[in-house]
Design brief:
It is a single chain. The protein has helices at 3-10, 16-32, 36-51, 58-65, 70-82, and strands spanning 86-88, 96-98. By secondary structure, it is mainly alpha-helical. A two-stranded antiparallel ribbon has the order 1-2. Helix 3 (36-51) crosses helix 5. The protein is elongated and about 50 Å long.
Amino acid sequence: MTFNERKRVLYGFINYNFLDRVIHLAYIFMSYGVTDKQLKLFNFIKNYISKNIISPSYDEMKTAIGLKSKCGIAARIEQLEKRGWLKKLPGKNRSIQIIKI
């Protein structure tokens, strides 16, 4: 049974516009396992590396995402690394590599 067929069977009586958005977001989260902030950080890093040769600093990432501390950036980078989206070389500054495009 495809995703759309499951959706029709389970939620045939609810407003599709709202439901489609909710199911789509849940499906993306379950498929890829990233939050909005993690995805925003990943896209920022990917765009930064494509424009500049090196990866951004934690301060630049912190400003782009809108966080107040570098600790939040470090945690999100670690989570993305565990999920296989990024790779960071230990002991090196600005050494983030994009794995998942």
